[in-house]
Sequence to fold (244 residues):
Amino acid sequence: MTGWLAVAGLGPGDAALVTPEVEAALAQATDIVGYAPYVARVPPRPGLTLHPSDNRVELDRAALALDMAARGARVVIVSSGDPGVFAMASALFETLKTRPGHDPDIRILPGITAMLAAAARLGAPLGHDFCAINLSDNLKPWDLVERRLRLAAQADFAMALYNPRSRARPQQFARALEILRDECGEKRLICFARAVTTPEESLSTLPLSEARPEMADMRTVVILGNSATCRVGRWVYTPRSALP
Ligand code: SAH
Fold:
């Protein structure tokens, strides 16, 4: 039996947003590897072994998946959203780099990332140039987060902010809001999109002056508009043009 390894994005939550390509890989798999809440989104069936793991063990997970595929298993590593956005695809390649000469059958299967699902619910806040920043300092120094926030704000990018706030680092999002107010002014629109496309979904849009750190948690993606982002009715959008 020839093994293979797919790294699949399960999308933001709604089963209707899992791509047919990902569904087909899950249907053919013998083993599913991933962070426990994501593995729990894959329905169990005979012949399928689930390997849930804790957060922050990405490299162990990638090594397990590579070992199983080398032994002939059909392995899917699952991520939420897209596997290439702050997720498992990079961890897999980092692990592969430590195994010179190993060239397994790998496929990266894209998914709908949180910022795009959130933007669609809100309207079109990412309709002009934008960037995505992970606010977690688990894998990079906080100074770098601050520098990127400031420079992105100065370049007038709209921004999608992933991993905005966790119990382990409650102060940092408050600091991020201070920096954004300083660079963008109090009137800039900011959107909090929580648990998008799930039954717990909530959305709110307000000026930066009214944004509070408690409005975000680890299930929230925060979208900051650029200087032209505005509202029409209940929608938020960023014009396609930056011409005066
Ligand atoms: N690979 C994922 C991101 C993993 S980082 C993707 O492409 O979406 C985890 C962060 O993603 C969370 O802290 C949150 O900021 C965001 N996120 C994931 N799913 C979300 C959802 N359904 N609604 C809002 N934010 C979400």
Observations:
- The domain at 115-237 is CATH 3.30.950.10 (Methyltransferase, Cobalt-precorrin-4 Transmethylase; Domain 2).
- The CA atoms of residues 12 and 98 lie 31 Å apart.
- The mean pLDDT is 96.
